[in-house]
Amino acid sequence: MSEQEREREYSQRPWGSYTVLSDDAPDHKVKRLVVHPGKRLSYQRHARRAEHWFIVAGTAEVTLDGQVTELGPGQAIDIPQGAAHRVGSVGTDDVVLIEVQRGSYFGEDDIVRLEDDFGRAPAAGTSS
What we know:
Elements: H1 3-7, E1 10-13, E2 16-22, E3 28-35, E4 43-46, E5 49-57, E6 60-64, E7 67-71, E8 76-79, E9 85-89, E10 95-103, E11 111-115
Antiparallel strand pairs: 1-2, 2-3, 3-10, 4-11, 5-8, 5-10, 6-7, 6-9
């Protein structure tokens, strides 16, 4: 592993992991996400960024504002700013995707979780 690769931000999550590939631009950030079979990210939205997902490997189930679409390698989808979205791995292999975030802010605190399989969404009747 190169020194540059070691310096990249890597984060383990209950659904898999992500690695930040590029975060030195003021208007975009690029991540590589790995979603394990049977797992999915929280159903969420962002106030300050849009995303573009390019599927590299696996079978992804993408929910965008309540509509479910299955995507495979070579397919992509745009997630508009403010849209509710999630991705899950529905096959037997990891889903690997490249996420390009575009907007004015890219912090993890711009995530508003609407639903979550791992207890990270606010309970009904509470505010986030």
